[in-house]
Design goal:
The chain is of the alpha/beta class. It has 13 helices and nine strands. The structure holds NADP nicotinamide-adenine-dinucleotide phosphate.
Length: about 280
Amino acid sequence: MRVAFLGLGRMGRRMARHILDAGHELVVWNRTPGRAEELLAAGAVAAADPAIAVRGADVCVLMLFDPESAADVLAQVTPAAKRGLLIVNCTTVGPAAARELGSTAATAGLRYLDAPVIGTVGPAEAGTLRVLVGATDDDLAAARDILETFGDPEKVEHVGAVGAASALKTVFNLGLAEGMAAVAEVLRYGTELGIDRDLLLRELAAGPLGYLVNYKRSMLETDDYAQVAFTVAGLAKDVRLATAAVTGRLPLAEATLEITSAAERAGHAGDDFAAMAAADVPAPA
Ligand SMILES: NC(=O)c1ccc[n+]([C@@H]2O[C@H](COP(=O)([O-])OP(=O)(O)OC[C@H]3O[C@@H](n4cnc5c(N)ncnc54)[C@H](OP(=O)(O)O)[C@@H]3O)[C@@H](O)[C@H]2O)c1
């Protein structure tokens, strides 16, 4: 198949590599030039803009940042795409935007797969991501070969119609963010009580927050969050998508955003989300 891959960030460039390795024809585009070198060396072709990238393509994968960037790039794709082009949007955009993007694609005569992924740079590199799919049976069948290049075939899950996968993805990431906020807060609390950091981490690792503490243990031990899997800004974006998806309040999500904002103010927006533990939450005035 001829595949256009738009968005070569931390996740995108790793996912795109599997499409190429599976023998598909790959055309890539990224807003900031210079991110495609390895892919080009392996046989991909660079396009100057999204419209050029999708000319003649059968499938177009989007791996952008948020609903706005996905909508912006899709708007450049629709006038240039051939009828029936299958858009596979792996960007985490939330359920409302997924439905809007799906309807924009349908209006332009394109097919649309809501396909957010679970798993970070390790599974992206290994081609073992979990792919949640919101789509018709036919569109999933048409995209399956591509999804199974970067996703584990056992973990490609059809959740429902367009929007359903993005809904589940925000549930997953809200849990991740609130869990990390809890780790950050209990660490800060224990530190303020004068408890030794190693002892704190050992106790927390053995308790209910153990999964996240063990997952981010080396960063929490060294206070060095530069080895990024997923950024503070990215996770904060996903918490905002969750709070916007419901009419009622999500008080824990709101508190979590206070911690991500404090981490961002401390210069950690582009660091790994474990840097929420380095947030300096101000005392009440
Ligand atoms: N990292 C993870 O562990 C992970 C796991 C699962 C899902 N996700 C989701 O996957 C998506 C990508 O994550 P990532 O970690 O790969 O992020 P990233 O490294 O920040 O990459 C974001 C990509 O989006 C592009 N982009 C941002 N704003 C744009 C705009 N206005 N117009 C065009 N392109 C734009 C960036 O281009 P530039 O290079 O020009 O900035 C880059 O290619 C996000 O939706 C994220 O929530 C991430």
